[in-house]
């Protein structure tokens, strides 16, 4: 059995519309996602020292990152870091590795820092600039964030030679606001938090994904959409999970439309874990 046997062929889709893998081709431009992407672009274009974008797990941050990577100009050298952790020196090793800089990772910190600085200056002299994009940045420690701030001191008299883009969960934003990181916060030029989708946006999101795979966009009733919004709390990844299960149920019962009853069946069977409501995570 292939994934297409689940319901794709039954509904006449070209592929599953509600997979969990981040795919920029499926990106739905909600107001929040459009603004977040604008902030990312603003940070790159204006050579902002530090740009920060946060959002709940499954809010679509990684998909936005992939979209940004597609849009970057050829004069940008990108270092992409995911799930970086560790104390002083270890983060610098992650940075060197992301930029494919050959270095003695067991060497002195000063030596590794000098290699990074020389590399960044050489790129600048060649008409290029270096951008470090750090995903899951909420995993960094206070010391790690402070180490990153020190890296932004690599600059010319008028241009930022090294830019940082940090993407992570809401804890990142909270950490940056701590008193001991006030110097870091002062270097953050642009920041945005991706809130949950409201009910209308969930409806648009579901329709968009259905249309993208050749569907009519009307495979879900308004009652079903209301339940999906309620139990997913407007988090795209959870919307995908619930819709995916619902379409399997509909195909199994040879029904062309997912209504509220099918969503209720999925929920009653306990195969979908609903979102935990977080205070302050209001829909935008």
UniProtKB/TrEMBL annotation:
One of its GO terms (molecular function) is ATP hydrolysis activity. Residues 47-191 form the AAA+ ATPase domain. Pfam families: AAA_22. InterPro entries: AAA+_ATPase, AAA_22, ExeA_AAA_ATPase_DNA-bind, P-loop_NTPase. SUPFAM superfamilies: P-loop containing nucleoside triphosphate hydrolases. It comes from the Bacteria. This is AAA+ ATPase domain-containing protein. It comes from Boseongicola aestuarii.
